[in-house]
TrEMBL record:
The active site is at R23. SUPFAM superfamilies: FomD-like. Pfam families: DUF402. One of its GO terms (molecular function) is magnesium ion binding. Belongs to the Ntdp family. It catalyses: a ribonucleoside 5'-diphosphate + H2O = a ribonucleoside 5'-phosphate + phosphate + H(+); a ribonucleoside 5'-triphosphate + H2O = a ribonucleoside 5'-diphosphate + phosphate + H(+). This is Nucleoside triphosphate/diphosphate phosphatase. Mg(2+) 1 binds at N87, D103, D107.
Length: 176
């Protein structure tokens, strides 16, 4: 089972804790792929929801997935700057079908000025009860929210000034 190659297009599958498929991104181009880190790019890709509804993303995005961190980060390039949407999630797995992760409801939206807001706390609490998230998962997720916020404040990883520019340039080179 090999990792996807740079320039290859893959699907991204998001699941819920109960194993049900949540969402599919039809096409994301691999910009970097190792067993620890996958960086992808997409623009106007089709997204399929679990109920069959589809929509198309509105802007170019750079996606960051890590095999050890319980979050993934999507940097969306808009006219007024980069907005980030961060999913608190399991680390990714790659299984030759798609990049996969479990979405744990909590999200952090980050604005171009690096201000941020934690979203969907009510949804998280409801799903924690409904799907019986183990206490250890709850602890891991809360620690990773703290780690993610520290990254935002410190400009670490995808929140550094160069990260999105560098990888978007790579995406444009591969897209030609």
């Amino acid at each position: 089972m090999g990792l996807p190659a740079e320039g290859e297009t893959i699907q991204i599958h998001s699941y819920k804790h109960n194993g049900k498929l949540h969402r599919i991104w039809e096409e994301t181009m691999i910009l970097k792929g190792t067993d620890q880190l996958i960086i992808g790019g997409n623009d106007r890709t089709t997204v399929v929801e679990s109920d069959g509804r589809t929509w198309i993303t509105r802007e170019p995005a750079i996606c960051y997935f890590h095999a050890k961190h319980w979050f993934n980060i999507i940097g969306m390039l808009r006219e007024d700057g980069v907005y980030y949407y961060c999913n608190i999630s399991s680390p990714f797995v790659w299984d030759d079908e798609a990049l996969k992760y479990i979405d744990y409801d909590l999200d952090v939206k980050v604005y171009p000025d690096k201000s941020y807001v934690l979203l969907d706390e009510d949804e998280y609490e409801a799903h924690k009860k409904e799907m019986k998230y183990p206490g250890v998962i709850d602890l891991i997720l809360k620690r990773n929210v703290e780690r993610l916020i520290r990254w935002i404040k410190e400009g670490e990883g995808p929140f550094s000034d160069e990260f999105i520019d560098t990888w978007y340039e790579q995406y444009l080179r591969f897209s030609k």
